[in-house]
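Hi,

Apologies if this is the wrong queue. I'm a grad student, and the batch job for Apolipoprotein D from Clunio marinus produced an output file that my downstream script rejects. I'm not sure whether the problem is my script or the file. Here is the sequence I used:
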Amino acid sequence: MMMSVTSIRCLVIVFATILKITKAQIPGIGGCPNVHVVQNFDLHRYLGLWYEVKKYPFIFTLGGKCITAEYGLNANGTVSVFNKQIRNGREETILGSARIIRSGVLGVTFSNVPFQTEANYNVLDTDYQSYAVVYSCNSFLSLVNGRIVWILTRTRFPSQAVIDKAYQVMRSNGLSTSYLASTDNTDCPDELPNGIDSFRY
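Support response: The file is valid. Your script probably expects a header line. Output copied below for reference.
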């Protein structure tokens, strides 16, 4: 039996939505859980270089190491996003931009990615000087959701006390720390290796 055009379109939309959700690697049932974001978020103090030290498994950075995120301020008031990692001995980068939605909540878009949509970027907490806990979640019809958490720090090798602060933020928001994977930050180059690729989406 032939499927109607409407049915095909619905399947395409569902498939595209599932693809979007699976970017966040930890699945859950129902809609995205409520979380508390940082109040009186100071964007200017948040700008600059952050090192990824832990995260929920994330498909786009599988096999990557020395992962960093650098944020700057564009002339139009949006935030420039420059993510970088080393994979298979080569540096991969991706550029994006973010806009402030409300305190602690940003919407981020990246160039050269399929299904160009705005990703939510929630800063659960940060002291601006040592750590930040970032959370993103997508849901499909409030039936299933996919979550990812990043722990970012201002140094590649933060103290355990800094990590413990980040863990406490996660626990207070009902987010498990057991899914966290450590990012390899050993033998990271101080200068660009031979060749720069875009993240492969």
